[in-house]
Amino acid sequence: MAVGAAAKGPAPRRGGAKARALEHVKDRILTGGFRGGDLISEGEVAAALGMSRTPVREAFLRLEAEGLLRLYPQRGALVVPVSPEEVRAVMEARLVIEQFAARAVCRADDAGRARIGEALDVQLDRQRAAGDDLRGFLDADRAFHTVLVEAAGNPILADVYSSLRDRQLRMIGESAVRDPRRTATIVDEHTRIAMAVREGDADALLDAARVHLSGTVMALGLAVETPGLLTTD
Length: 233
What we know:
CATH class of the largest domain: Mainly Alpha
Strand content: under 5%
Distance between the termini: 50 Å
Strand order of the largest sheet: 1-3-2
Order of helices and strands: HHEHHEEHHHHHHH
Radius of gyration: 20 Å
Helix content: over 70%
Shape: elongated
Number of helices: 11
Low-confidence stretches: 1-14
CATH superfamily of the largest domain: GntR ligand-binding domain-like
Oligomer: single chain
CATH architecture of the largest domain: Up-down Bundle
Mean pLDDT: 87
């Protein structure tokens, strides 16, 4: 809905406006629209959404509590940059979980691996079709990895993996904004992962997963040393 049209309609309830402001700002942060170090103002967001500053202020407070914003009175809100420490922690957690998943998936029989491969291909097709829709691409990216992790059959690890969702989304989104070629590279890396699953080649799958995670770290332009992840060749 256009901002002008929104202004002519009935005023939204406070809870609805806050939720809309929260969704808008958080989505921009997670997908790289607002990058780490950017300073954003209540007024700019309120004008973009056709609402008063009050629900935007409430959304900013919520995002500060989540660690995504740092508020400065009279100046605005600073988008907290992704730190090397956070990247390392998330990638180490992903590496542990995805290594377990790779070994478990490759122990499945041919029919089981074929089903997993088909589910991965569905998400690959979504990514290829996303075009300039970065959010759609990122949603398919998350779904791709979720298929692999859930196929391992360990619900506790799947829950831990799910808890990393927002952090992963933001890192991948920022890497794509920094390097426009990153989305095409991700599709290539995912294709390699899906092929290794179909072939039941655990070593190839483990290697493909490491290359994939390393690519995200390098695209972020951060100096992060994670044993078993980054390569120097």
